């Protein structure tokens, strides 16, 4: 029995020695905290709790070891002098009230292994409505206290942002409370208070994870008209470095660019984007080897690894023809210095040879997103990129624009250009002129070779269902294309009839008709097993399929076409 009792005593000894000891500090200086730490080291194997019940002035560097807990009683804090280092590795017990006071934005307070709140660095606007606070200051101080692996928690209803917040500590998390905010309801919002706020977060380092936050602006917009600024600005100082970041379960409204990114590897999932000019803009890494006047871009800079999945986009440009919305899109991967000068009907304008440009962007996935009341869902380079499984309703312009790249896949998308449930109305109003109605193609590709366009449903588009320019060796199969060349409005009496000028599948004529050269470009495109028809009895179109550069290899075959209401001469298929 004695041996058993002795064994139990030996087992309990380490726990008894490491039990918590409390020392109360009712004000003073860092000397009082250091004395408490020294006491724990002497009597309790380093373990202990320091209860802060008065303001403590820190004028010399202070290290709080991992075995020491700081317990802040409400209203008491550490007042840290300029250039003084405070390194806290132990646990902090505190409410969401101020516990650190420092006049420095770029201070030397570092908090390890602990979730941090901006309220720890000062009172925030939602806590005191009688004072106009700049919450970006407290948030910036809190972020600057984090080390790699740290986490900032935003638990307030509203934070007012007057200046961009910079993030240059790698591998940290910024997380809200995941409360949905809509209309006039304020719930966990980061609000840019004026149009001069260029962005809410400037992110210049890798490994940042942002989730469960509502980003919005005090100045509201309709469909993104004249929107300003960015919510998230991912721009590495070294353009060849990866972003390696993720954004999830956030809400973005009223920005010009909700997410702006340069670099590689960004995951954007389960977010809401609304009333903005562009949801996700990725600046494509490009260079022109023949034009030395363009800025030199490092060849190692790449635009790849963007996974944009399960997001909802709403009211992004929509049917509005406001000129500030030209180029509006849910997702865009484009070189920001390059303007694509082509009108939607294929009229070629002045532009440099696109083939001079080499796009360094590939392996991007845009999938399973839902978009409604948007102008364009996707525009950009489709080099080895998937645009698949998206539902695109009420697209006021061309739904998908694939410009540049090889081996892209545009498949299994549902595209409906109608803005109403009324089969006779493409748009809500009947008294607007044609320029004010929605327009565009279903899918438009240009300089995109070896593209797979399969299993898409394309309905009610004003222009072509699928439009191919400067692209060859592509597979266009098993698509359902209905009610293209769609009238904007069909009245019960006199019809507002659109001319039958658009086709279900239109391959632009590029050949020069010179019998000596007979140059062709849009060739060797397989077009088979597509279903093409005009089911609306008051809609007419031109051809089901138009192949401007011919079909020298007999690749156009085995399509199911209902020729009724197709008005092109010579039958439903025209091969030049």
What does this structure look like?
The chain has 576 residues and is mainly beta. It has a domain at 22-106. Helices cover 7% and strands 35% of the residues. It contains three helices and 53 strands. The strands form seven sheets. Strands 10-11-14-17-20-23-28-33-36-39-42-45-48-51 form a 14-stranded parallel sheet, with no helix packed on it. The longest helix is centred in the first third of the chain and has 16 residues, at 2-17. 44% of the residues are buried.
Question: Which properties best describe this structure?
Answer:
576 residues; mainly beta; 14-stranded parallel β-sheet; 13-stranded parallel β-sheet; 3 helices; 53 strands
Short overview:
By secondary structure, the chain is mainly beta.
- Please indicate the percent range of residues in DSSP E strands (runs of 2 or more): 35-45%
**Shape call:** elongated
Instruction: Compute the average pLDDT.
Output: 86
Largest sheet, spatial ordering of strands: 10-11-14-17-20-23-28-33-36-39-42-45-48-51
Radius of gyration of CA atoms, rounded to a whole number = 31 Å
Largest sheet: 14 strands, parallel
- Cα separation of the termini: 104 Å
The secondary-structure class comes to: mainly beta
Unreliable residue runs: 8-18, 336-357
Number of helices: 3
Overall strand count: 53
Helix content: under 10%
